[in-house]
Amino acid sequence: MRISFIGTGFLILLSIAPVTSAIETDAYKLCQRAKDFWGCVRSMNGTDPQLRKYGPLQVDWSIWKPVNGSYIAQTFNSSGKGFYLAVNCLKAKINVTDRKGVWKGWNSPVKGFEYDLLEEICKEVGTPIDLKRE
Q: For residue 87, what are the domain limits?
């Protein structure tokens, strides 16, 4: 929607951007304090989360989004704290955000569950990798 007032000496343009792309992550933020967290997310997104557990992480597999050659999803640790997780299949690297939403930097997997997660998402998006576990 665009509104302009011309003839008053001012030109004001208001643009309302579509919010549909942000609904999924907003649901996670809005539901954080709900008694039934996943029920809240389910009702807000209109779909059931496809939860997969990797070590201390819960990943909603249904919300992976491709971004600049990587894949990003909202993830939760065992304390219920949400953050973003990114994987880059071509480089076999993982990145996560801190409490303020700032990316920490790309790292190779270290723990078994990190290898499992990276291998599974890369296989599903069509870029299978075979990592040598240290």
A: 23-124
> pLDDT tens digits for 59-73?
988 888 899 999 998
> Is residue 51 a part of any domain in this protein?
yes
Q: Residue 119 falls within a domain, yes or no?
A: yes
Distance CA 53, CA 58 (A): 5
Average pLDDT over residues 31-46: 69
Lowest mean pLDDT across 27-31, 117-121, 123-127: 27-31
